[in-house]
Amino acid sequence: MSVVDLLVPELKSNDAIGAHTLLLRDLFVEQGSMVRFVAEQPSSMDEDVIVLPAWKKPGDLIVLQHGIGSQLAAAVVRRQLPVVLNYHNITPPEFVEPWDAAQVAGLRWGRAQLHQLAPFSRRAVADSRYNANELVDAGFTDVRVAPVLWNTRENDDRQTDRDTPVVLFVGRVAANKCHHDLIAAIAALRPSHPTARLLVVGSAASGSYQRALDAYAKRLGVADRVDFVGAVDDATLASYLTRASVFLCLSEHEGFCVPVVEAMAAGIPVIAYDAAVLPETVAHAGIVLGNKSPLTVATAIARVLDDPTLRKHLIDRGRLRAEDFSLANSREANRAAYDGLVTG
Questions:
Q1: Where is 288: in which H helix or E strand?
Q2: Is 326 helix (H, G, I), strand (E, B) or coil?
Q3: Engineered SS bond to 172: which of 87, 205, 209, 244, CB 3.0-4.6 Å?
Q4: Where exactly are the structural domains of the chain?
């Protein structure tokens, strides 16, 4: 029986990389392998984890989840271990530096490790073509594309309130995700839809950025229409998806963007900015804006709220697009991406 070691800096719940790693484990187990998790610290979940110092004898296949600089990646390079890199992208440091200098070192380290890992790579698996292009630029030669493994929610019981539209965004409160543009759009929307609310789900990655956003909302006169609810459990998130009128993503850097897929699967029309991976993930299933000036975004939101035909078109196209990333389809893509790496 082959032994597969899945390396992830931290295995935790309510985390896209953690959920992906667990589902990848299931895929290898179904193929007859024994799977071990290796992390830098014990897991808060009910899973057995080998903490890095105790990882003495590597398995037959090593798969490293890479999204930030890590001691795990450093150990692979130091020990010159053949590895499969599963790449989820790393936020460019320039987005973070003005708000949280402490995070910059880890981001730069992670990007430097890409080049260090390339010579030891048996294969690389990127969860988008956008990410795959970065790997090729970093020197990886055998690069496959397979989406993040994720259980998307489907919801046919929409409960949107026409009198109080809810514009939803889900994602860490981090500068690359451009929450300030969301707030500006809500302010521009207010003259035509004065009851519209912005609901932001996600933990604050930077306290200074969060404080700046709160002050910005007050300055624009929409603090009473903007709700930052922090991280929530799955049930609460499902309830927010049920009530949302529009999903708005104006991020300037994403490597895949699971929340966009969740929104489409839940029947929420998606408006996104044409940056990084977003045109690839949304494809023709949403409104992709080349300009995110507040008035442009507000106009797009108003069209979706006020035009039932357009709204239905986006919902239908979104659900079809989300099916491309269904767990069944994503499992098949991941199975193909790892084909031939495990024997026996």
A1: strand 287-289
A2: coil
A3: 205
A4: 3-150+327-337, 166-324
Domain 3-150+327-337: CATH architecture, name and number where available: 3-Layer(aba) Sandwich (3.40)
Q: Do residues 94 and 87 lie in contact, with contact meaning Cβ atoms separated by under 8 Å?
A: no
pLDDT tens-digit readout, 295-329: 999 999 999 999 999 999 999 999 999 999 999 99
Nearest to 251 by CA among 153, 327, 172, 323: 172
Q: What is the 3-state secondary structure (H, E, C) of 134-199?
A: HHHHCCCCCEEECCCCCCCCCCCCCCCCCCCCEEEEECCECHHHCHHHHHHHHHHHCCCCCCCEEE
Give the other-Cβ count within 10 Å of 261's Cβ. 26
One fold for both 3-150+327-337 and 166-324? yes
Q: Greatest CA separation found in the chain?
A: 65
166-324: in CATH 3.40.50.2020: no
Q: What share of the chain is helix, strand, coil (3-state, %, to 5)?
A: 45, 20, 35
pLDDT of 92-137, one tens digit each?
999 999 998 889 999 999 999 999 999 999 999 999 999 999 999 9
Give the DSSP H/E element, type plus range, for residue 130: helix 129-137
CA 148, chain centre distance (Å): 9
In whole numbers, what is the pLDDT of the chain averaged over residues?
A: 95
* Burial category of 2 from C-beta neighbours within 10 Å (exposed 0-12, middle 13-18, buried 19 and up): middle
- Write the Ramachandran bin of 152: left for phi over 0, alpha for psi from -120 to 50, otherwise beta: beta
